[in-house]
Design goal:
The chain has 291 residues and is mainly beta. The chain has three domains: 145 residues, Acid Proteases (Cathepsin D, subunit A, domain 1, Beta Barrel), CATH 2.40.70; 36 residues, no CATH class; 67 residues, Pdz3 Domain (Roll), CATH 2.30.42. It is 8% helix and 51% strand. It contains four helices and 16 strands. The strands form two sheets. It has a six-stranded mixed β-barrel with strand order 2-3-8-4-7-6. Strands 11, 12, 13, 14, 15 and 16 form a six-stranded antiparallel β-sheet that branches. The chain is globular, with a radius of gyration of 25 Å. The two termini are 32 Å apart.
Length: 291
């Protein structure tokens, strides 16, 4: 899985030899047919906790940690937030950053982590050795190879491995709500030959006509707003449909691209065009640090 090039490559296990200097080859174990890998967390008090982490490619977060586990302590600085939608409904919890996270030979500092507050989910999903989950925000920093027959996973260093971790500073959580058919203007030039008495125009007349096309565009809705976040203070509301982000129309920029705009450095300016109850509105706000 190469996140940088957005490519997924599948090979027969016997045809693949895994060996490289920039890699960590780690064993994986399975619980309910799901892969878990060993990792370690260094906490604010300096203690290091080792445990198993579910490799959750469906999660957009970097790390989930279960502070219901006796070994895990939530950092002193955190903020409550909407974490996502689970099989039992909305999941809420706290977000913070841990001192460091080690995965094989790689040590990542100031890694953002979420602490879900659903004790029921913890009891269902966690065994005695599992202390959290690894999501896409961390996985995308590597080129990842899963060798399931040999029960191992390979993390290869990329140019983004040690990039800083930024939160979604906007306070907006988005969800995909299907597609809509929209009518778009398309400018078109048409030309034709003319008679000899119009030769002073080189025998050509130019007509500018306005054409239209129909196109399906994704519907991206604000599913949740963090209280007192820049987006909430600007006046945005849950249920608003986003149509443009920083001058780019939704559809020309995908959901991942939109979220990337919200995960920039503090001070970045965000411009949104939204539709609310059929009426268009424009909003502006500046990303602000929360930790």
């Amino acid at each position: 899985m190469n996140y940088n090039t957005e490519r997924l490559r599948i090979e027969r296990s016997e045809e693949k030899t895994i060996s490289c200097r920039k890699c960590s080859v780690l064993p994986i174990r399975f619980r309910n047919s799901k892969p878990l890998v060993r990792g370690s967390v260094t906490q604010e008090n300096g203690t290091t906790i080792q445990g198993d982490f579910l490799i959750d490619r469906g999660s957009s977060d970097a790390l989930w940690l279960f502070d219901q586990h006796d070994k895990i302590e939530k950092p002193a600085s955190f903020f409550p937030d909407f974490l996502g939608i689970g099989i039992n409904g909305d999941v809420f919890g706290d977000r913070s950053k841990i001192k460091s996270f080690r995965l094989g030979n790689f040590k990542l500092n100031q890694v953002k982590a979420a602490f879900p507050d659903s004790l029921g989910s913890y009891k269902v999903l966690v065994d005695s050795n599992r202390i959290g989950s690894i999501g896409g925000e961390l996985l995308k920093r590597f080129k990842v190879t899963f060798d399931y027959p040999n029960k191992q996973v390979v993390f290869k260093k990329t140019s983004k491995t040690f990039d800083k971790f930024y939160y979604n500073l906007s306070g907006i959580e988005l969800q995909y709500k299907g597609e809509s058919l929209v009518k778009e203007k398309v400018s078109s030039f048409q030309s034709r030959d003319v008679s000899e008495n119009e030769s002073q125009n080189r025998g050509i007349k130019i007509y500018l006509s306005q054409l239209y096309r129909l196109r399906f565009r994704p519907i991206i809705e604000i599913a949740n707003l963090r209280v007192n976040s820049p987006a909430a203070l600007a006046g945005l509301k849950e249920g608003d449909i986003i149509t443009e982000v920083n001058g780019k129309r939704v559809g020309d920029i995908d959901l991942q691209g939109i979220m990337h705009q919200f995960q920039k450095k503090p001070g970045a300016k965000i411009k949104l065009r939204i539709v609310r109850a059929g009426v268009k509105f424009n909003y502006k706000f500046i990303l602000k640090a929360v930790l």
